[in-house]
Structure formats: structure tokens, C-alpha cells
Amino acid sequence: MSKSSHFDHYLTDDGPAALVIREHLMPVEGPDGVLFPATFAAGDGFPGGYNIDTDASGRNVCLIDSVGSQANRMEPLFMREKYRDLVPQIVVEVGERQVNILEAGHRAGDALLRCSSLQEELRDAFNSVLGGNAEPLARIAPTSLVFGVWDSRGTQAKLPRVVGASIRAFNVRRLTRGAVYIPPVDYTELDDVFSEEDKAKAEGNNKSPLAQRGFYHNPASGAHGGVIAEGGIRRDATLGLSAVRHLHAADDAKKTLALRRYILALSLVAFTAKTESYLRQGCTLVINPDEPREFVEVYADGRRQPCDLTHDDAIEFAMAAAQEFEIGQSRVVAFEKERAKRDVKGDDKGKGKSKRGAKNNAEPSTNDAREN
Q: In the chain, what are the domain boundaries?
């Protein structure tokens, strides 16, 4: 058996539907430590702040790190020296800055790539996806197949995430905090610096120009103070093997198998890699040693079997699968201002149409902007 065929049992119709990892986490301070969830902007009836859902019984679930945010933490793994040869390194030059596609929030569907010399190539690749052939996109941006992509500003081609993860806390107790800034000098006593009108506005008003610019004491009360997770914190990660089995390289069985092996390999590498502990200020999470980690194969009939696959196994498989697939070339391209101008005007939309009977009937994939 070749190394590239080592996990072919995951690609058969009677194989597992998914791999699942459940990890119980806690703040570095301990299980009862305070942690700071992600905050979200107001909109669609949501007032803004922490995303906490409460049921009729009073129990709640707090979103600590979203699916999109977790994907954006995992994807740059492939920029590291140990992994960079597994995928094409596509870099876009924007002025004096260079941005790798692995850092772009919408991956192959990002405006950064759309307004470069890759525009036509990516458009053709997305149109191929609509026709049931994901191979061209996998040669340019394979992680777009691993973590999902939606060409929402162009062809409307969509590919679901193969790997998804999120972190949630249960039965949280919300806290608030207060602070006050006291300037080192009482600037209001200085002559000929601020007008009497400005001084009067500053009194008891933390929105006044003097307070906003640090010339007057500025109290802040009732701000988000984090949460205590009385019901624990859990990271749930899923690798959808069924989704990999829906990928096709048109009607070519040999190429389809090589494509599926390659995307499965990249997915396994990302899925089994060590997770990031530092999420944001006030939110560094580590494994809770008192709660067992679960890593299982889940079958369509509900069976759950332990999985002993290691990260080293995944890397070895990925190296063989990448060689068999013959990954696309790495390159540096320039962000082109004229393309951006035309794109904003709607001259470069390049929308495609889905072909009836296409094999890739993927559900929309939410590709969140990169979060903290």
C-alpha cells in the first residue's frame, strides 16, 4: 500500500461520516477564572457585545471563538516552514506589503486576489466548481476547499468547510468592569491653554474633547468584564469526510481520487495540529486535565469508534498526497489598482451560472472576516 492510499477507507461510501474532536478547556488561571469572549457588532436585532444565547430554563451558551475565527487561526499553519511545501504559496503585493492568500479572510474569493493578475484564472476555477470540477481551484488555493469559500462577488460558486471548529462556554456568569483615567497634571488649572467653555464641557462629561484627548479624568463604568464559565468550556472540531467524498475532478476517476486524497490530507493536518491557546487579551485557554479528550470516527448509523491518528501520521500522508496530486506553483502577483476600480464599478464581476446536474451542490459557506 502506498503512503498516499493509507487513508482511502475514509473516502469510501461506507467509511465514517466525520471525525470529531472534543476538548475541554479552561482559562490559564483555572476552571473558575475569568475569560473574555469575542465581541460582535450590533445588527439584525443583536445589540452588540458578547454572543450569549439563553433558553427558557435560564441556561446559556456563550460563543468564545466562532467557526470563522477558528478557521482563520488554523489556515496560516500552512505558511510555516514545516508545512509550506504542502500548498502553493500565493502572495499578493500591495504597495510595500506582501499578503499570503492564507491570510486573506475570504480566501480565493477575497477582493485581494480578485483584483490581481489571478482574476481570470480564479474566475475560470470557480466556474469549473460550478461544473463539478474542483481540481483547478485546488491547484491554486487548496485551503479554500478545506476551510470553505464563497465567490460571493463573482460566480457565486460555493464550497462548504471540510474542517470546522468553534469554542463555546456554558452557563456563563457575565461580569462588568470599571476604570478611570486620571491625568498626571490638572490641565484645567493651566492658564491660556483651554478655554473656559472647554473646561465647563469637560466637567462630568467623559465624551468631551478634553476627556477624549486625555486632558481630563475619564471614568468608564459597566464595560464588558468577561465571563466565568460555570458549566465549562469546550472546543468542538469536525472533519466532514462526507464533504470530501463530494469533491470531483469532473468525470476523471483517477484525478478525483488524487484530489480527494490531497484535500483529505490537508484537512487531517489542520485538524490534528496543536490548537492556539491565546485567543485575545484576557482569553488564553488550555486543556482541562480533569476532563478526557474525545477523538472519534462517527459513522452514518451513529457508531462512534476511537481514532488514534496522530499529527505525524497526517503530515506523512500529506507529503505523499501532495506529490501525487502535483500541487500548483507558488507565485507572487501584484494587486492592481485599475482592476479594483473596475471591480467597484461592477465591470469585473464575472458572474457564472450553475450548470444543471452539477456534482457540486454545496451549501453556502460562511467565511468570516479575520477576528482578533
A: 3-170+228-345
